[in-house]
Design goal:
The protein has 259 residues and is mainly alpha-helical. Helix content is 63%, strand content 5%. Helix 3 (76-85) packs across helix 10 (184-204) and helix 12 crosses helix 13 (244-252). Keywords: Lipoprotein, Signal.
Length: 259
């Protein structure tokens, strides 16, 4: 709880540090990017990493080259297990937001998939019980608490974010109940499995990822716009609904912890 009491002031401090400049407009969308020069350097690193390591490794590991984007892949159980391990943290965030209904649904989804789904390798909760994942994170918790998004950031490996969401990513790792319940080695293994599950998403949306990351005239600006539009829509902050597959693909390309 001490960490939670410090999280909001820390977020406000970071936000205020990046709010001095007037937001610019991109395709009619306000973009607060005072760190664009540094962000573009990070983006160049992330883009090269995706082209040379993440993309090829994801395609090789998933075995989707000959199956098509919707066919069963070798990493499907890993994707399912990684997503299942993220559910306790989502339960905690829903409770912190004062939203018991999604917390209850995610709790029962976790219970069903952990037992009947053999540790989350399969998804009977969604397939047989009508319990889809209720997505959330501590960035959304801060938004519910009234913390503004702050400046846009692109983080090394983790990809597109904002100051508020960057704080949220750190806190999410700490408040995750599994982080405290599991032995240290088991907790690190669970984190590694969650990261590995994103490789399957990278392969699943490979064509869209490549079109955004590798084929765009300005991939930095396009990824920034996709992220901000969808994130604001997701948080009811005036964003625009876009193709969820395009957004998920673009973000998952370089964000192994996005859920």
């Amino acid at each position: 709880m001490r960490l939670l009491s410090l999280a909001a002031p820390l977020a406000f401090f970071l936000v205020l540090a990046g709010c001095a400049s007037k937001p610019a407009m991109q395709n009619g969308i306000p973009v607060n990017d005072p760190f664009e020069t540094q962000n573009r350097r990070v983006h160049a690193f992330n883009k090269a990493l995706d082209a040379r390591v993440i993309g090829p490794a994801a395609r090789l590991a998933s075995g989707r080259e000959d199956r098509g984007p919707d066919g069963p892949g070798a990493m499907d159980p890993v994707i399912n297990a990684g997503a299942n391990l993220s559910l306790p943290g989502k339960v905690a965030n829903s409770l912190l937001q004062g939203r018991p209904e999604p917390a209850i649904k995610n709790f029962f989804r976790f219970a069903v998939n952990t037992t009947l789904g053999i540790g989350g390798l399969f998804d009977p909760a969604g397939r047989d019980f009508g319990l889809p994942e209720q997505d959330t994170d501590f960035g959304e918790t801060l938004a519910v608490w009234g913390v503004p998004e702050g400046a846009y950031l692109e983080l090394p490996v983790l990809g597109p974010s904002t100051q508020r969401d960057a704080v949220g990513k750190v806190v999410d790792l700490v408040i995750d109940p599994l982080h405290h319940l599991l032995h240290r080695d088991a907790a690190w293994a669970a984190l590694g499995l969650r990261a590995a599950s994103k490789a399957g998403d990278r392969a699943r949306f490979g064509d869209t990822v490549d079109s955004v990351m590798q084929d765009s005239a300005d991939s930095y600006a396009q990824l920034r716009l996709i992220y901000l539009m969808h994130r604001r829509y997701e948080l009811n902050e005036g964003g625009t609904e876009i193709d969820p597959y395009a957004e998920a693909a673009a973000v998952d390309a370089i964000d192994p912890y996005a859920e």
